[in-house]
Write a structure and sequence with these properties.
disulfide bond; alpha/beta; globular; three-stranded antiparallel sheet; single chain; Anaerobic Ribonucleotide-triphosphate Reductase Large Chain; RNR_2_N; 30 helices
Length: about 1000
C-alpha cells in the first residue's frame, strides 16, 4: 500500500510564513535555461549485440547538443514515460525535467518554502539549469515516478525491520517483495530472531534460527527478479557478531560457492544466468556482519568473545575472537561475503539515538539510519565545478548544494512510500542523501593521485563542504518550516554529532592552494551549522551519503562513479547513428597540461595510452606522475589500502556511509583481507566490503588465450599417457637460412638527436625493399660506446638476414628506457625514451607497412594529425557523401610476428567520419569489445570479473558495491 504525506502541523505553518529568499546564481534573469542551450533531434535505437534484435527504438528525441549519445540513450530508455508510439510518450528532455521540477516547485509553494512567487520562479530556473547542464541528478525513482500517475516514490534506499515472531517474518517477505517489484532494494538486520540454539516459548522445541528464514527471502527475491527484464532484487542481510548463529551465517554463501563448483565440475550450467544456477541458495543478497568495538579489540588481543541469547541476553557460548574473524575473512576470500559493518562507529555518529539504534543499511551500505525508513538521493558532478585554471570552484559548489538540498527536502512533502511504517519514519526524520560523482576524474584533472595525501585532502575538504553546507541549509529550512518531528527528543545528540563533524574538519591538513580555499569555506559552513542548529534545530536527521551513481552517472556524462577512481584510461564512445570508437579519457590531456607537459609531449603520451592502455614507460612521462593516472583496473591498478584510505578521508564528513567495494587481486591472501577489515575499523569506516578477482564461479567465462589452450592440450596428453598409448611422432627440424645482401644495395643515412646526443644511422635494404642491415655511429671511433654500437649493429643485421622480422625487433626495443632520452629533432618521433627507442621507431616508419606499424602503435606526424581531425590514422579518399562513415576492416597481422605482439595489438572497430558531425550505423561484431570493461580485457589480456548485463548482454563494470552497464545504463540492483 502507499501512504501520502500528511500536511504540515500548525507550528510549521506558522513558522513557514517568511519562506526562503532564493538567489539567482546559475540561470540568467529574463532568459529561460532551455533558451541558453542548442537543442537537436536524435534517433535512439538499442539492440542486443548477441541476437541483433532491436530492444528499443524511439526516433526524433530532443536533447541539448552538449549531451553525449550515451546520456541521451539512457535517459530516453530509462526515464521517458508514456507508451511508445503514442502521443503520451515523452520525446524531449524538456518534458522530463519540467515534469519533475514543476512538481517540486508546486510542492514548495504549497508548503511555504518560498518567501515570494519570484523566489519560487528563481528556484525553478536554478534547479532546471543545474539539471539540463548536467551539474547534478536526482536518483532514478524521482525520474521514474515524480509527476506521473504512479505513486510519487522518490526514495531508492530502504531499511526494514523484523522481530522474533512468525507474523513479523512473513511480513518481512511481503514488504521486501513490494520493494523489489518497484525496482528498489532493501536491507535489514535479522539478529532479533532467536538462534537455532534457543528454545521456542510455545512448544519448547528448538528454534529454526535466522539463517533458515533467509532461504525463503532469498527465493522470493530470485523469483521477483526473474520476472523482470533486468535484475531488480537488491538486498542486504545483516547479523550481529554476538548472535549464536553467527558462524552458520558467515559460512552460508561460502558453502554454496563450494556447491556451485561441484555442480559445475559435474557438467551443470552454473554461470551467471545459467539454467542451473537457480538451484543454489542465498545468491540474491549481500551479507554483512555487524561487529562491535568489543569484538574487534578481542581480535587484536587474541581473547575469547561471548555469543548472547536473543531472548535473555545472556552469554550462552564463548568463541575465540581471532578464529571467528579468520572464518569471516576466509568466507570473504572464497565468495566476497560477508562484509563488515562497524556498529559502534555507526552509532557514535547517529543523530537520533533516543529514537533507536542504527542496526542495518540499504543493499549498497551507504544509507544507515533507523529501521523502517527510506532515503532519497541526489549526486553532484564534481568535474563541472573545475575552473579553467584547474582549481575547484568551492563557492559555486556550495551554492549548488543549497539548491539541491532544498529540493530534496521538498520531495518528502509529497512523496509516497511502500509501507505505512516507512512513510511515518521518513516524514518524521526526513533523511536525505546528497553525494557526488566524478571524484576520480576531478583528482586526475587537478594532477592529484587518488592514493596520495593531496588527493585525499582534496576529497576530504569537498566532502566536508558538501555536508556542512547541507546541514546549514537544513538549519535554515528548520527556521522557515520547522525542524524534523523527531528533533526535540534528539536535539542534544544531533548537536553533538555536528560538533564531531566540525572537529573532524578542523583536523584536516590541507596541502595546496585549491584544497585550502575549499577548506576555508567548509570551516565557515560548520561554524554556521553549530550556531544556527542551536537556535533553530535541523530540518533533516541525515544529509549526505556517497552512493554508487550508476545510471545517473551516465545521465550526467560522468567519467567515474561515486567515490571511485577511474575504471580505466581507455573507453568506448558511442557515435551518432550507431557504432562506437575507442578513445583515451579526455581528462588525461587536461591533467598532462596541468602538470606542465608541452603539446607535443601530451600528444605522444596520449597516443601511447591509446595503444597500451596504461602509462608505464609512456614517452616523456615522468615516473613521479604515474600515480596520477592509477586506475581501478589495469597495469597500474590501485592497491587495496589505497581505496580504504580514500574512504577513511571522506567518512567523517558523511551522515551515512560509502558504497564501495575494495577490490583485491586473485592472488590476495586471507591475511590481506583480514588486514583490510582491521584497518577499516581503525581508520573509522562504517562499513567495508571486499571482492577478490575470480573468487566466484557464477561469472562470465573469459578466454584464457594460449595458456588455456596449452592446459587443454596437456590434459589430452596426460590422458593419452594414462591409457598406455604409445605414439610415434615425426619431428621435422627447420634450419634458418641466411639471406645475404647484394654487393651493391640501396641504403639511407639518417642523422638524429636524442636528448641532446647526436648520432647517425645507415640502413641497407634488399632489392625488394626489405631491411637487411643497420649501422649505428655514436661517439668517437675507438670509444667503448662506438664499439658497443658496432657489435649491436652486427648482431641486428645478422638476425635480419637470418629471417628475424623487423616487427619483432621493433616490439622488443621500442619503449626501452635509459639516458639519453627526451626530445628529438625528428618530427615523426618527437619524444624518445632512449636511443634504441628512437632507432627502431625510425626503422619501423621507414621499412614497415602502415598496417604493421598500426599494430605496433607507431604512426608518422601526418598520420597522427589525420587521427585528430578524422578519428583515424589511415588515409581516406574523399569520395562519398558528407554523412558517410567508412568502417575499417581488420588487417591480418604478418604471419612472422610473434604471437604476443598480435594479441596485444589486435585492432578494435574504428569508424572514420568524413565530417565531424556525420555518422552512420555500424553493426558490432561478436567477440570484439563493446564496453570499456571488454576493451580493458582486450588491451591487458586479463579478465574483468563482472557480470553480463541482462538487458543488452554487454559486460558491466563495477560501480560502488554493485555493477552498471555502459551500454544501456542498467544496474545490478542499485538505482
Amino acid at each position: 500500500m502507499t501512504e501520502t504525506a500528511h500536511p504540515r502541523t500548525a507550528d510549521q505553518q506558522g513558522r513557514g510564513a517568511r519562506g526562503l529568499s532564493i538567489q539567482r546564481v546559475f540561470s540568467t534573469e529574463g532568459v529561460h535555461p532551455y533558451d541558453e542551450l542548442t537543442w537537436e533531434r536524435r534517433d535512439v535505437v538499442q539492440t542486443n549485440w548477441k541476437s541483433g534484435e532491436t530492444v528499443f527504438e524511439q526516433k526524433g528525441v530532443e536533447f541539448p547538443s552538449t549531451w553525449s549519445l550515451n546520456a541521451s540513450t539512457i535517459v530516453t530508455t530509462k526515464y521517458f514515460r508514456g507508451a511508445l508510439g503514442t502521443e503520451a510518450r515523452e520525446r524531449s528532455l524538456r518534458q522530463l525535467v519540467d515534469r519533475v521540477v514543476l512538481t517540486y516547485v508546486a510542492a514548495g509553494r504549497e508548503h511555504g518554502y518560498f518567501a515570494t512567487d519570484a523566489d519560487a520562479e528563481i528556484f525553478e530556473h536554478e534547479l532546471t539549469w543545474l539539471l539540463v547542464n548536467q551539474y547534478f541528478s536526482f536518483n532514478s525513482p524521482v525520474w521514474f515516478n515524480v509527476g506521473t500517475q504512479s505513486p510519487q516514490q522518490v526514495s531508492a534506499c530502504f531499511i526494514l525491520a523484523v522481530d522474533d515472531s512468525m507474523d513479523s517474518i512473513l511480513n518481512w517477505y511481503k514488504e521486501e517483495g513490494f520493494i523489489f517489484k518497484g525496482g528498489s532494494g532493501a536491507g535489514l538486520n535479522i539478529s532479533r530472531i532467536r538462534s537455532s540454539k534457543e528454545l521456542l516459548r510455545s512448544s519448547g522445541g528448538t528454534a529454526s534460527g535466522p539463517v533458515s528464514f533467509m532461504r525463503g527471502a532469498d527465493a522470493s527475491a530470485g523469483t521477483i527478479k526473474s520476472g523482470g527484464a533486468t535484475r531488480r532484487a537488491a538486498k542486504m542481510v545483516v547479523l550481529d557478531v554476538d548472535h549464536p548463529d553467527i558462524e552458520e551465517f558467515v559460512e552460508t554463501k561460502a558453502r554454496e560457492e563450494h556447491k556451485i563448483r561441484a555442480l559445475r565440475d559435474a557438467g551443470f550450467d552454473m554461470d551467471l544466468g545459467g539454467t542451473d544456477i537457480t538451484s543454489v541458495q542465498y545468491q540474491n543478497a549481500n551479507n554483512s556482519v555487524r561487529v562491535s568495538d568489543e569484538f574487534m579489540r578481542a581480535v587484536e588481543d587474541g581473547t575469547d568473545f561471548g555469543l548472547r541469547a536473543r531472548t535473555t541476553g545472556e552469554i550462552i557460548e564463548r568463541v575465540d575472537a581471532r578464529d571467528l574473524f579468520r572464518k569471516i575473512s576466509q568466507a570473504a576470500w572464497e565468495c566476497a561475503d560477508p562484509g563488515l559493518q562497524y556498529d559502534d562507529t555507526i552509532n557514535d555518529w547517529h543523530t537520533n539515538p533516543e529514537t533507536g539504534r542504527i542496526t542495518a543499511s540499504n543493499p549498497c551500505s551507504e544509507y544507515m539510519s533507523l529501521d523502517n525508513s527510506s532515503c532519497n538521493l541526489a549526486s553532484l558532478n564534481l568535474l563541472k565545478f573545475l575552473k579553467d585554471d584547474d582549481t575547484f570552484d568551492a563557492e559555486l559548489f556550495a551554492q549548488a548544494v543549497e539548491v539541491i538540498i532544498t529540493a530534496m527536502d521538498i520531495s518528502i512533502c509529497f512523496a509516497d512510500f511502500p509501507t505505512e511504517a516507512i512513510g511515518e519514519t521518513t516524514r518524521d526524520y526526513r533523511q536525505l542523501g546528497i553525494g557526488y560523482a566524478n571524484l576520480g576524474a576531478l583528482l586526475m584533472a587537478m594532477g592529484l593521485g587518488y592514493d596520495s595525501h593531496g588527493g585525499r585532502s582534496m576529497a576530504a575538504t569537498i566532502t566536508s563542504l558538501m555536508t556542512g553546507v547541507s546541514y546549514r541549509r537544513s538549519a535554515q529550512l528548520a527556521e522557515v518550516v520547522g525542524p524534523y518531528a523527531g528533533y526535540a527528543r534528539n536535539a542534544a545528540a544531533h548537536q553533538r554529532v555536528m560538533r564531531k563533524h566540525q572537529a573532524a574538519n578542523d583536523a584536516v591538513r590541507t596541502l595546496h592552494t585549491s584544497d585550502t580555499a575549499v577548506h576555508r569555506l567548509a570551516t565557515q559552513a560548520w561554524s554556521d551549522v553549530v550556531r544556527l542548529g542551536a537556535d533553530h534545530g535541523f530540518r533533516n536527521a541525515q544529509a549526505s551519503v556517497l552512493a554508487p551513481t550508476g545510471t545517473i552517472g551516465f545521465m550526467m556524462d560522468c567519467d567515474t562513479t561515486g567515490i571511485e577512481p577511474d575504471f580505466s584510461l581507455v573507453k568506448f564512445k558511442k557515435l551518432v547513428g550507431g557504432g562506437s570508437m575507442q578513445i583515451v579519457n579526455q581528462t588525461i590531456p587536461r591533467a598532462l597540461r596541468k602538470l606542465g607537459y608541452q603539446p607535443e609531449q601530451v600528444e605522444a603520451i596520449v597516443d601511447y595510452i591509446g595503444d597500451k592502455g596504461h602509462v608505464i614507460d609512456a614517452p616523456g612521462l615522468r615516473t613521479e606522475h604515474y600515480e596520477i593516472f592509477d586506475t581501478a583496473m589495469g597495469a597500474r591498478s590501485l592497491k587495496p589500502m589505497g581505496h580504504v584510505r580514500m574512504m577513511a578521508a571522506c567518512q567523517p564528513f558523511l551522515s551515512g556511509a560509502i558504497s564501495k567495494t575494495v577490490n583485491l587481486p586473485e592472488s590476495a591472501t586471507v591475511e590481506e583481507i583480514e588486514e583490510v577489515y582491521l584497518q577499516s575499523w581503525k581508520l573509522g569506516l562504517k562499513a567495508t566490503a571486499v571482492y577478490r578477482d575470480n573468487c566466484k564461479v557464477g561469472q562470465p567465462l573469459s578466454d584464457g588465450g594460449s595458456t588455456a589452450k596449452d592446459d587443454a592440450a596437456a590434459k589430452v596428453a596426460d590422458a593419452a599417457g594414462a591409457a598406455g598409448e604409445t605414439k610415434v611422432v615425426e619431428k621435422v627440424v627447420y634450419a634458418p637460412t641466411r639471406k645475404r645482401l647484394p654487393k651493391s644495395r640501396t641504403s639511407r643515412t639518417t642523422s638524429f638527436t636524442v636528448g641532446g646526443a647526436e648520432g647517425y644511422m645507415t640502413s641497407g635494404a634488399h632489392d625488394d625493399g626489405e631491411l637487411g642491415e643497420v649501422f649505428l655511429k655514436l661517439g668517437k671511433q675507438g670509444s667503448t660506446l662506438a664499439g658497443v654500437m658496432d657489435a649491436f649493429s652486427i648482431a641486428v643485421s645478422i638476425g635480419l638476414q637470418y629471417g628475424v622480422p623487423l616487427e619483432t625487433y621493433v616490439s622488443k626495443f621500442t619503449n626501452l628506457r635509459f639516458e639519453p632520452a627526451g626530445l628529438t629533432d625528428d618530427p615523426d618521433v618527437r619524444m624518445s625514451q632512449s636511443i634504441m627507442d628512437y632507432i627502431f621507431r625510425r626503422l619501423a616508419l621507414d621499412y614497415l607497412s602502415f598496417e604493421d606499424r598500426a599494430a605496433l602503435g607507431i604512426y608518422s606526424a601526418e598520420e597522427r594529425q589525420r587521427h585528430l581531425e578524422t578519428g583515424s590514422y589511415e588515409p581516406v579518399e574523399e569520395t562519398g557523401a558528407a554523412s558517410e562513415l567508412i568502417e575499417v576492416e581488420e588487417k591480418p597481422a604478418a604471419a612472422a610476428v610473434e604471437a604476443e605482439v598480435v594479441e596485444d595489438s589486435e585492432p578494435i572497430d574504428h569508424l572514420i567520419p568524413r565530417k565531424a558531425e556525420a555518422a552512420a550505423e555500424a553493426t558490432p561484431t561478436a567477440g570484439r569489445p563493446r564496453t570499456s570493461a571488454e576493451l580493458l580485457e582486450a588491451i591487458t589480456g586479463t579478465a574483468v570479473d563482472s557480470p553480463l548485463c541482462m538487458t543488452c548482454g554487454t559486460k558491466m563494470r563495477p560501480a560502488g558495491s554493485c555493477y552498471v552497464c555502459e551500454g544501456c545504463g542498467s544496474t545490478s540492483g542499485c538505482s
